[in-house]
């Protein structure tokens, strides 16, 4: 139980970090596009 819970926590944290990085990347791209226009 403890091991599986720990893995679930690690996976969830990694997934959140991945989503945040993708969102920030998308926001930067949008800002660059609007700035160039």
Q: How many helices?
A: 1
Anisotropy-based shape: rod-shaped
Please mark out the parts with pLDDT under 50 across 5 or more consecutive residues, or reply none. Answer: none
Structural class: mainly alpha
Q: Can you summarize the main beta sheet?
A: none
**Beta-strand percentage?**
under 5%
**Whole-angstrom Rg:** 16 Å
Q: Helical content, roughly? A: over 70%
User: Could you give the distance between the termini?
Assistant: 54 Å
Question: What is the H-and-E element order?
Answer: H
Number of strands: 0
Please, what is the average pLDDT? Answer: 87
What layout of secondary structure does this protein have?
Layout: H1 2-36
Explain what you see:
With 37 residues, this protein is an all-alpha fold. It has 1 helix and no strands. It starts with a helix and ends with a helix.
Quick tags:
about 35 residues, mainly alpha
Question: Quick gist of this model?
Answer:
The protein is mainly α and 37 residues long.
């Amino acid at each position: 139980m403890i091991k599986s819970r720990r893995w679930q926590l690690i996976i969830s944290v990694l997934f959140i970090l991945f989503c945040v990085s993708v969102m920030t990347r998308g926001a930067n791209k949008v800002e660059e596009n609007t700035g160039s226009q």
